[in-house]
Amino acid sequence: MSREAGCIKYGQHLIEFDVVRRERSTLQISVDPDASVEVVAPIGASLDAICEKVRKRAAWVRRQQRYFIQFLPRTPERQFVSGETHLYLGRQYRLNVLHHSEAFVRMSRGYIHVHSHRPDDVELTRKLVEQWYRERALVKLSERLEVNLLRFPVPEAYRPKAMVVRHLSQRWGSMSPGSRLLLNRRLIEAPVDAVDYVITHELCHISEPNHGPRFFSLLDRVMPDWRKRKDRLEKVMA
Fold first, then answer.
1. In this structure, which of 33, 107, 150, 190 has its CB flanked by the most CB atoms within 10 Å?
2. In a domain, 116, yes or no
3. Which residue in 52, 43, 62 sits closest to 6, CA to CA?
4. Range from 68-72, 152-156, 161-165, 217-221 carrying the lowest mean pLDDT
5. CA nearest to 137, candidates 172, 180, 161, 113
6. Would 10 be classed as within a structural domain?
7. How many independent structural domains does the chain possess?
């Protein structure tokens, strides 16, 4: 039995799936309770043929995913008050809002300290925390970009022409045809190994724009454990 990855585009969505090959004559598509998709296929079936089968069942797959997603745990809506926990690089930090003549945020010993001249102003606290997250994201994601470039045989061939960090509603990152790397600000909340997965995934798109067999072959070579990292990203950031 062998396992590989596949992906198709359906409307505005990417449907990623694992392919398990077995001695059988038919193909079976299933959606698990965690909303992941598995395709059990004959050993000799080509990935293109498998993708075409998934594309024909895409509407059903998306219905099943939507059904299961409603039961998955979700991060509660943040209130931005003292005692509330917030993620930073996969670790939980407790918010501590303090009265101070100047407005700034610093992190130490398990706390994110928010200094504010209006500590009871939740909206101001939110803005201060968000600004701090954006600044940290620019620094840390730039650092991780440099680290992950070294995974490739010729790192400079995979260097994006620009990196932009902003809020994204439906994806963790993207690579434009002009090699412009766009990363979700929320990645600064994710574990480092999951951050590295997203960045490496997008860097692979510089040479392989589509999610075809050559893309996954490259991703497997430069990051053999990417599936485990992807699973952790989805579980921690649910």
1. 190
2. no
3. 52
4. 68-72
5. 172
6. yes
7. 2
Domain end among 47, 69, 91: 69
Asked whether the predicted pLDDT for residue 227 surpasses 80, the reply is yes
- Contact call for residues 145 and 179 (beta carbons, < 8 A): no
Could you give the angle at the alpha carbon of 42 between the alpha carbons of 39 and 45, nearest 5°? 90
Query: Are residues 35 and 54 in contact, defined by beta-carbon separation less than 8 angstroms?
Result: no
Q: Assess contact for 203 and 223: CB atoms under 8 A.
A: no
In a domain, 117, yes or no: no
d(CA 208, CA 153): 15
Domain of 201, CATH number, reads: 3.30.2010.10
Give the number of other CB atoms < 10 A from CB of residue 98. 10
Provide the residue range defining the domain that includes 212.
143-236
Q: What is the Cα–Cα distance from 206 to 86, expressed in whole angstroms?
A: 33
Is residue 60 assigned to a domain?
yes
User: Where does a domain end: 69, 93, 127?
Assistant: 69
Structure tokens at 216: 């996954």
Round the average pLDDT of the chain to a whole number and report it: 91
Contact between residue 68 and residue 35 where contact means Cβ atoms under 8 Å apart:
yes
Concatenate the DSSP letters of all residues of 123-175 into one string: HHHHHHHHHHHHHHHHHHHHHHHHHHHTTSSSGGGG--SEEEEE--SS-SEEE
In 3D space, the residue among 47, 44, 58 whose CA is nearest the CA of residue 18 turns out to be 47
Confidence of residue 10 (pLDDT cuts 50, 70, 90): confident
pLDDT of residue 60: 95
